[in-house]
Input
Amino acid sequence: METLSYRHKAQERAAGSKSLAIIGVVASGNLEVLVERLLPDTECQVDINTAAEGFGAVWEAVVADFVERRSPGGLKLSINDGGARPDTVALRLAQAVRLIEEDDQ
Amino acid sequence: MNISDRETATVPHLANSKTVSWYEASARQRVQLLLDAGSFHEFIGPEQREESPHLQVFDLPTQFDDGIIIGRGRIAGAPVFVAAQEGRFMGGAFGEVHGAKLTGLLRAARDTKSVPVLILFDTGGVRLQEANAGELAIAEIMRALIEARMAGVKIVGLIGGRAGCYGGGGLIAGCCSALAVSEQGRIGVSGPEVIETNRGVEEFNSRDRALVWRTMGGKHRRLLGGAEAFVDETIQSFRSFALHLIGSAPVFGAEVLKAEQTRLEQRLQRFGLCADAVDIWKAEGVADAEAVPVMAAADFNDLANKAREPRYDAR
Amino acid sequence: MTLDDILTSLFPKGHDVANDKGVLLGSALLQSGGSAVVIGVAGRSPLGVDEAIRLSRHVLDAVEQGGEGPILVLVDSDSQRMSKRDELLGLNEYLAHLAKCLIYADMQGRPTVGLLYGHSAAGAFLATALATRVLVALPGADPAVMDLPSMSRVTKLSIDMLKEKAKSTPVFAPGLNNLAQTGAVFTIWDEKTSLAEQLQTLLGSIQGAGDQRDRLGKHRNGRPKAADIAERVHDLALQSK
Output
């Protein structure tokens, strides 16, 4: 198992007022993302727990790209990874942010 | 923590639609769409990070909720406790934390007395990496479940997910007040592959999908009396039957157990020599038994009600 | 100890327990006076629909007849019977029904005591030994939830590798010590001294309190989380509206 953590500055605070969201399932080729509104508005963090070791550079790139596109300020995203491909990771990260930015129903 | 803070449907255009497929939905989606909007409050949610302490030894990833969602909500305004297993995480199998969450919920139901419980089964049984803890959890769940039923609580099982309801899950299901199962649902103890591995392919060909479904699937369980209701695939259908079964379920006690003993003895007398499910269905007077597997739910239910009225007083 | 030795040591005043192809049914006189109902599975037999229905019938008959004596469940079984027929006929219901009868009897004041003297596994274990109020074992008993060869097949790890991992945790591997440490087995009896006396001591110490196995597992460091998680959920649920 490998644990990775990336801290970034974000351009702006993620929208909305929800404090918590979760998406995905830990299964082969899949992952779960727990997102919590815990950090200062211009900070974000992505913590990853993965059974697929040695992909640090890939995670770093995916996370950096995600932060650049989505500006998830204030968010801590925690991942349990079941060996997902980078595009699936990117999808889940985007879904997570969309969920926490949604209005309460 | 409110369920609306969690994932809505990952099929966005079907968000909040009650025609979403039970089988395709995640455990979280099932809970959200089964219950009244905004009513669900989770106990020990994923943000608590109560993950399995036993998977690291096997280099396996954990899930924040250990594969089961536990909480309280409302259906048609009435309170319910809910437990929903995520069949795609470790096959929905019972581990130490996963099991303990359900044990605690059932003990609470026992002590509350007035709130029914819905268990959304989606499990292969014991999680083998934590086999002893998983098995014990199941034993404790069965004990807590019967204690709750003795206190008057109705406990309804809903079965229709990817993993089915196997192993110890099948035993827990057999302890419930009533069961609703869909086409995709299967209920058993030994899974098809386990039977084949242990007894050979002549005994059970696990790759014969039609055989698996005839032997363990929802339609057979309904016709056999192993489940009270066969439901359409949709969350709406499960919701309707959940309400119906909560209302119809018996109060547990000696009379129920005696009735079950009789029902199970009679089943062996009537069908103990049948080689296949189709033989059982024919013996029950089902017209065109061979066509049962391909029947749509509504047609099947008409036929099932003619062959065997559901009874609610012998489980 | 053979089954006959066990029965003699348990019931020196006499018993009528019969073994019909692995299904044990009968009754026995207790050393302290009174009598016990006895059921069980012997000869490492699998537990299928045909066996389970007879065992549950015996329990229900005993409950119906009344009386306060304990119900003993003697276990040397295989796993549940793995067959097309048993699954076809709804084995899960038969095993659940047996467990329900035992749990019900116990709640009605007939303490249920499991004595594991041989093997047991999986669904058979759940429906018999694990459905009792208290489970004791004789040394040499070898319970298993899942056997190592099956585990090896599924995990793709060698049996040696699994045995190595099992050194650091009691939570998955078969064996009496592991099942004791996780809280399933309350105590291991001494087969050199009278089983009747050990039974009497046990019956005298049974308390009314509910299922304590998770607390026992925590106390023995076999299951560090279960008891606390269950208690937390319980308390949260009771507070919820």
